[in-house]
TrEMBL record, chain A:
Upper lineage: Bacteria, Bacillati, Actinomycetota, Actinomycetes, Glycomycetales
Domain of life: Bacteria
Native species: Stackebrandtia albiflava
Pfam families: DUF742
Protein name: Uncharacterized protein DUF742
UniProtKB/TrEMBL annotation, chain B:
PANTHER family: ATP/GTP-BINDING PROTEIN-RELATED, GLIDING MOTILITY PROTEIN MGLA
InterPro entries: Gliding_Motility_GTPase, Gpn, P-loop_NTPase
A single MF term (Gene Ontology): GTP binding
Species name: Stackebrandtia albiflava
Pfam families for this protein: ATP_bind_1
Superkingdom of the organism of origin: Bacteria
The protein, known as: Signal recognition particle receptor subunit beta
Entry keyword GTP-binding: yes
Keyword Transmembrane: no
Protein family per UniProt: Belongs to the GPN-loop GTPase family.
Alphabetical keyword list: GTP-binding, Hydrolase, Nucleotide-binding
């Protein structure tokens, strides 16, 4: 299990390109395979207060099922870095990962009609 | 069918992924934000790129880091479908990232600025190469020259079936209308496909 406790990775002088590297301590490959559209959700088993700031922040964003892309954007971190953080949390039992929603079939007329209808209805 | 009590059919919704592409500063982030139900999130992607101009292979370790942004937006259509919008980074040198982002994508919008039409060539090439259906949307910048759709089509060397539409990415309705045009185009193509399949099946 990764050690997440009591580690601070903030450095006011560090540039934007440096900080993501520190956040993941230089690791670039997540231990769990995550897609940009994979969905993650907190298990409630780990208290955010027990984690360092970045992991705690990520965990707090995942109270509802949320996509990896959205977490990355909200944290203002590169997707690759976000995937490493989220994989840590999954390893620690703090998060559960779900497969991305199944991708739409381009020849599915019912889906295309629903998309057309939904867009026309909303705007 | 208005009701369906089959519990299996109430499973997870399907994700519909659309791409918003185009050159630098053409309005991709604005477009995603205009349609998304969440505040669009822009991710800074840090890419490591081997520096160009070194012919010595021992210099391969000399890599530079580049930052490139990706936009993400979402629109829940109903219980069955969720629309995801991905704004792709403008620079064509990020083809590997374009590849990753376009996995499973249904279709794309290529945004263009008529002051710099050539900026969207690489996006068009990319979607043609990947066989991802796309339409072209002309974003209306105030001081941009006004072209006839036919002129743009000719300048971009587009096949006649690819729709070209006008839009103002700052307006939700206008951006949504572009997506409506895109879906209509997909419906037409899909209908053609199933017709030709049917006629083939009939022994034509
Ligand atoms: N007049 C006008 N301005 C627009 C339109 N769409 C976007 N803009 C403006 O153009 C500027 C650039 O828009 P962005 O959405 O940031 O463009 P982008 O393609 O995301 O830019 P990069 O990510 O830097 O490549 C912003 O100031 C927008 O407000 C449009 O349709 N008309
Ligand atoms: Mg942008």
């Amino acid at each position: 299990m990764p050690r997440l406790e009591e580690e601070q990775w903030y450095d006011d002088d560090a540039g934007r390109l440096v900080r993501p590297f520190l956040v993941t301590r230089g690791r670039t490959a997540p231990t769990v395979e995550l897609d940009l559209l994979s969905l993650v959700q907190s298990t409630g088993a780990v208290e955010p207060t027990k984690l360092d700031l970045d992991h705690a922040h990520a965990l707090q964003l995942c109270t509802m099922k949320i996509s990896v892309a959205e977490v990355a954007g909200l944290m203002r971190l590169p997707a690759t870095v976000t995937k490493v953080l989220l994989a840590d949390l999954i390893d620690a039992g703090a998060l559960l990962a779900h497969e991305p929603l199944p991708a739409a079939d381009p020849e599915d007329l019912k889906m295309l009609e629903a998309l057309l209808h939904g867009l026309q209805q909303r705007f | 069918m208005a009701y369906n009590n089959d519990s299996d059919s109430r499973s997870a919704p399907v994700g519909i992924k659309l791409l918003i592409a185009g050159g630098f500063g053409v309005g991709k982030t604005t477009f995603v934000g205009a349609v998304s139900e969440i505040t669009p999130v822009t991710t800074e992607e840090t890419l490591t790129v081997a520096s160009i101009g070194t012919d010595d292979l021992r210099d391969i370790k000399d890599k530079t880091t580049t930052t490139v942004a990706m936009d993400f937006g979402r629109l829940t259509l109903d219980d069955s479908y969720v629309l995801y919008l991905f704004g792709m980074p403008g620079q064509e040198r990020f083809w590997s990232m374009w590849n990753e982002m376009s996995d499973g994508a249904l279709a794309a919008v290529v945004l263009t600025d008529t002051r710099r039409l050539g900026d969207c060539f690489s996006a068009i090439d990319f979607f043609e190469h990947r066989r991802i259906p796309f339409i072209v949307a002309l974003n209306s910048f105030d001081d941009a020259p006004v072209y006839e759709i036919a002129e743009v089509r000719a300048a971009l060397d587009l096949p006649s079936h690819v729709p070209v539409v006008h839009c103002d990415a700052r307006e939700s309705r206008s951006s949504a209308q572009v997506l409506v045009s895109l879906v209509r185009y997909l419906l037409t193509s899909a209908t053609h496909m199933s017709r030709s399949t049917t006629s083939l099946g009939a022994g034509q």
